[in-house]
Design a protein that fits this description.
Order of helices and strands: EHEHEHEHEEHHEHEHHEHEEEEHE
Strand content: 25-35%
Bound molecules: guanosine-5'-triphosphate, magnesium ion
Distance between the termini: 21 Å
Structural class: alpha/beta
Largest sheet: 8 strands, parallel
Shape: globular
Number of domains: 2
Radius of gyration: 20 Å
C-alpha cells in the first residue's frame, strides 16, 4: 500500500514539533497509523524524547540533516512502515535547512515512484520573525541565517503562519495578505497548533494534496553554509539526583539562567529546549527569541531522580555555548548530584546534499 509523507519545515523554534504532536494525535484518532521522523545534527534530541511519549512510532535521523543523509531518511521511513505499519509519515527537517524541494522531494519522487505520496511542502513561520523578515529585516538573525529563512519561504508549497494565538485577528489577516502578495504561488494558512486553530484546515490540505516540491530554488551554498555555521549547536543528556527535588522549579531556574547568561554575552537564541523526565512524567521548557519569556509545560512530581535532555541552538561559538551551559548548570543545580551522560557541541558543517535535482520530477 502506498504511504504518504508530510514534510514540515521552517526555521528554528517555529513550532514544527508542536504541530507534529497535535497532527499525530488528530490523525491517530481518525484511525490512521502515524509515524514521525525527527532530524538533527547530533544525537540526544529533545524532539525525539517528546514525541516518543505520544505512543506512535518515532524514528530519529541524527548526525546530519535529511538532505545530507538521504539514505538515513529512507531507512527511517522504511523502519516506520515495517515496524509500525505506518500509512502516514510526518517528518521534521532541521530548522536551519533549506533547498528541500531539490534535495529531498525530487529524489523521493524519482526513487519511490508509485510507493509514496508526498504532500505539499509545509514551511511553518513564527509570526514575529515572519513580520520582520517581510519588512526586509533580519529578525535578530545573522544576515546569512535570515537568507536561509527567506529561502525556506520561497520554496514552500504551503506557508503556515504559526502561533496565531499570539497575534490579534487583524494582525494575522494583514500578515496573510502580505505573504500572499510576496509569495503568490504558495498556499497560505494560519495555525495555532497549541490551541488547535487551523489544524483541521491544514490537515485537509496535507492529507489530500500531492502537489509537492514545485519550486526549485537557486541557492547560494556559501551563504547557506555561513548561515548554519554562525550557530553553536549543543545536545546533552544529564542524570540528576537529589532527595525530593522540585523538578519544575529547577527546570525553570536552568532555562532562566541560560536566558540571562546568553543575554549577557549578546548571543541571539535560535531555540533552547529541555525535557526533564522522571518515571512516566515529563516537563518541557523552551526559550525562543521571539517569545521572550521561557515556556514551561508538563509536570514531574517531587522525586529523587530525573533524566534531562538539553538542546541549544544559539548564535555563538560552540565552545562558548558549552561553557555557558556547564557554568549555568553548576550555578543553578547546587546541591543536586549531576552526571553529564553525554554532550556534543558543534558548528554545523557545510551542507553537502546526497542528491540535488536541477529540475522537477513529474
Ligand atoms: N503560543 C504558541 N506557542 C507555540 C505554538 N506552537 C509552538 N509554540 C511554542 O514555540 C516553541 C517552539 O516550539 P517547537 O514545536 O519546539 O518548535 P520547532 O520548530 O520544532 O523547534 P526546533 O525543532 O528547535 O526547530 C515552544 O515553546 C512551543 O511551546 C502555538 O501554537 N502557540
Ligand atoms: Mg522541533
Amino acid at each position: 500500500m502506498s504511504c504518504r509523507l508530510i514534510l514540515v519545515g521552517g526555521f528554528l523554534g517555529a513550532g514544527k514539533t508542536t504541530l507534529l504532536w497535535e497532527a499525530a494525535k488528530q490523525l491517530s484518532s481518525r484511525g490512521l497509523k502515524v509515524g514521525l521522523i525527527t532530524n538533527d545534527q547530533a544525537p540526544d534530541l529533545v524532539d525525539t524524547s517528546l514525541l516518543s511519549r505520544l505512543g506512535v512510532g518515532v524514528s530519529e535521523v541524527s548526525g546530519s540533516c535529511f538532505c545530507c543523509n538521504f539514505k538515513g531518511l529512507l531507512r527511517a521511513m522504511a523502519e516506520l512502515k515495517e515496524n509500525f505499519a505506518a500509512d502516514i509519515l510526518i517528518a521534521e527537517p532541521v530548522g536551519s535547512c533549506t533547498d528541500l524541494a531539490a534535495t529531498i522531494i525530487q529524489p523521493l519522487k524519482d526513487q519511490l515512484k508509485g510507493e509514496l505520496k508526498i504532500s505539499p511542502l509545509t514551511v511553518l513561520a513564527d509570526p514575529f520573525k515572519l513580520t520582520e523578515i517581510l519588512a526586509g529585516k533580519t529578525a535578530g538573525l545573522h544576515d546569512s541565517a535570515a537568507y536561509i529563512y527567506r529561502k525556506q519561504l520561497e520554496e514552500a508549497d504551503l506557508i503556515a503562519i504559526s502561533k496565531t494565538d499570539l497575534f490579534t485577528m487583524k494582525m494575522v489577516s494583514d500578515l496573510v495578505a502580505q505573504v500572499k502578495r510576496e509569495f503568490p504561488a504558495a498556499l497560505v494558512c494560519t495555525l495555532s497548533a497549541e490551541r488547535g486553530f487551523g489544524l483541521d484546515a491544514w490537515l485537509d490540505v496535507v492529507t489530500n494534496k500531492t502537489d509537492a516540491g514545485n519550486k526549485l530554488l537557486k541557492v547560494d551554498y556559501d551563504r547557506y553554509a555561513e548561515g548554519e555555521a554562525v550557530l553553536g549547536w549543543l545536545n546533552a543528556r544529564f542524570s540528576l539526583r537529589a532527595p525530593n527535588a522540585d523538578w519544575r522549579g529547577l527546570a525553570t531556574k536552568i532555562i532562566a539562567g541560560l536566558q540571562q547568561s546568553l543575554g549577557e554575552r549578546n548571543a541571539p537564541i535560535g531555540h533552547v529546549k529541555l525535557i526533564l523526565e522522571s518515571g512516566s512524567q515529563a516537563l518541557f521548557a523552551n526559550l525562543t527569541e521571539s517569545e521572550q519569556e521561557p515556556r514551561i509545560r508538563g509536570t514531574v512530581a517531587q522525586s529523587s531522580a530525573a533524566a534531562m535532555t538539553l538542546n541549544a541552538r544559539v548564535q555563538t561559538a560552540p565552545e562558548q555555548l558549552q561553557q555557558i551551559v556547564r557554568e549555568t548548570l553548576a550555578n543553578e543545580l547546587r546541591g543536586i548530584d549531576v552526571t553529564e551522560e553525554s554532550l556534543s557541541c558543534l558548528q554545523p558543517g557545510r551542507p553537502e546534499p546526497t542528491f540535488r535535482y536541477a529540475s522537477q520530477v513529474a
